Amino acid sequence: MSFLTVLIGLLLNHYWLRDRKLPIDGWFAEWLNWLLVHAHRLPERLHDWYGTLPLIAIVVPLLPLALVLWLAEGLLFGLLTLGIHVIVLLYCFTRVNQQALIDQYLELWRAGDYEAAYLHVNQYVPDVFSRNLEDYAAMHSQFVAYIQETAFRHLFAVLFWYILLGPMAALAYWLLLALIRSDRLLMDPDASGLAGNTLVLLEWLPARLLAMSYALAGDFVAAFRSLRAHGRGCMDKADNLVLLADCAAAAVGITKDASGDTDASERAVTGLESLRDLLLRAQVVWVIALALTILVV
To answer: Where are the domains of the chain?
Structure first.
């Protein structure tokens, strides 16, 4: 079932061009607010531990999913369970259609309308850019970094945990990301550190598998050399993303000193197009690898 779910999920994610902002997206924020209001009702022993509320925030929403999966087991020849798996997978993916966002951004960038490119991205993802709009090179770098992070955290890492442990694990990973992004229950430095370290551990292996996928989908020698240079990596929040950025650049043949005969604007277009195609090929690599794993195991 996992192979069929992943295949259906990736196809829907690729060809779903409509707006993905779901009417139930705000439930997690309301859940966190409710927890903060009623936190004083917890036993004193639990209330004193900084990890209690974050743990409750993640575990409790998993219980309804576990119940629904248990009730749906064996019904309609497994089609109902398959549907639930696909829905959970799609829910954990990004709400923005990355393919359409990149294509429109590239069209505006080629036309030299950088401000329109900024406004277009900001309309769908308001928190991408953090620097002055007039610095177009920095703007483009931040957009590329956003594409790489989103592809990893809201596609490949979700797929990894789904394939390994099922929809409960995929949703738990998504909930951890949402918890860290909201920052409402992580005001305590210890709680924030615990959540951050947990995220680093959960992303360590999928980041390296994705980096290997870049090597298989692009320039293997250059990407694998970059992966090997990072080694095991340090347990730092940014290390996994830096690893993926370096391996992606190596896989598509982008080097820091590469200039050629093209100007910066054309190199930016070429680099983003190469990254977009690399991410698509990496998805194919994962599907093939999953199919081979199922056949062998």
So the answer is: 2-296
